[in-house]
Amino acid sequence: MSLRVKRCSFCGSEIPRGVGIMYVKNDGTVLYFCSSKCRKNMLILKRKPYRVKWVIKKAKSTKSK
Known about the structure:
Helix content: 25-40%
CATH architecture: Roll
Distance between the termini: 29 Å
Radius of gyration: 12 Å
CATH class: Mainly Beta
Largest sheet: 2 strands, antiparallel
């Protein structure tokens, strides 16, 4: 049992226990997502987090705290 806090693979926000989606790719890579918005942006729309404006704003706001 891991008590370590998971981070979203797309936006980098912390995911509390019991929330979010764990996605396992065919090659064994495990991706954690805080919401379906992050999952769809990465897996379906093939977007890169550093090119999405709301992810950049979220990263700046958490960094300044």
